[in-house]
Amino acid sequence: MRPVQKSNKLAEVCYEIRGPVPEKARQMEEEGHRITKLNIGNLAVFGFEPPDEIVHDMMVNLPNAAGYTDSKGMFAPRKAVMHYTQGKKIAGVTIDDIYLGNGASELIVMSMNALLNTGDEVLVPAPDYPLWTAAVSLSGGTPVHYVCDEKQDWFPDIDDMRKKITPNTKAIVVINPNNPTGALYPNEILLQIIELARQHQLIIYADEIYDKVLYDGNEHTSIASLADDILFVTFNGLSKNYRSCGYRAGWMVVSGEKRHAKDYIEGLNMLASMRLCANAPGQFAIQTALGGYQSIQDLVGPGGRLLKQRDLAYKLLTDIPGVTCVKPKAALYMFPRLDPKIYPIADDQQFAYDLLAETKVLIVQGTGFNWIAPDHFRVVFLPNTDDMEEAFGRIARFMEGYRKRHGSPI
């Protein structure tokens, strides 16, 4: 029989967070091995529970959640999102500018589907959250990666971004707070990105899903709050700030210069209608979450579990010879660098595979985030301190063996 092959549109699509190495980990689990999964920010499996009032309200409203909702979402949660954007000082947002989705991920793909034609380009950070690169490719566009500079706290390299703008460029993606680096961008950087978008009439897509997961008293600025003369599309949701990954409750906000984007907005409305609606139980969680007690502050503030685990993970990683890391100001991840003179890695996916096989610890290689060299990897710092010390201890022993096998100078 003729082989059934996947679409050509998937040729440039990859998602290594759930790629070949995690698939090997799944097989190992089926064989009875216990795998420590440091590859994904799935908070529930590490004992981070959603606020009780969210769970309660979803349960109470479940009998009312069997029908389709408005294609953009229910009125009350969208109104709550509107108030949230007002708190973030994003001007001019109405109920009609807000779309609820099955997580921000669905809406990211929708936003690219509505925009891109074959050959259109979108500037995406390197490293990035790989869904962005995949969404651009799947929508027929070409992702063009601008470099974030590790020596400058992983801030976007504005000169590199400028050089990569062409007549085909339609938009700039800004992931802030950043996954995988944990960087938090100052207003100075955000204003420079806005100026580039202004000069070249580009849309700014702002992924702000970690905007409350902030450490050391840092504050987050929504880039859409800094201008109103260009088009912004901002994404957020309950997955991280409210430890509700599985509820798939996210939102997308269109703001700024909307007058010249009527056709694009019509496309968004068409796609929102085609998927009928976001899941109704998740929608019922949004208003309660945004209006309730912000328990994330207890986790990231002084004495908080996430803060303690960030500090411990940073120490354990940077104590390993030849491993350096920019200490994250936000989010749930470390993106450490392996000195190539000490760790001469040619294939970082194979490196992650070997580490998994030897240590039963699952990480994600840096090139899985479209980083330019095989010299980084990403881990979450979600396990409790005892489990983290055990897992990072295994990583340290693996690194020691790697150095010996390759005759490294340390």
UniProtKB/TrEMBL annotation:
Domain Aminotransferase class I/classII large: 35-395
Top-rank taxon, per record: Bacteria
Gene Ontology molecular function terms on file: L-alanine:2-oxoglutarate aminotransferase activity; pyridoxal phosphate binding
Cofactor: pyridoxal 5'-phosphate
EC numbers for this chain: 2.6.1.2
Keywords: Aminotransferase, Pyridoxal phosphate, Transferase
Enzyme class: transferase
Entry similarity comment: Belongs to the class-I pyridoxal-phosphate-dependent aminotransferase family.
Record protein name field: alanine transaminase
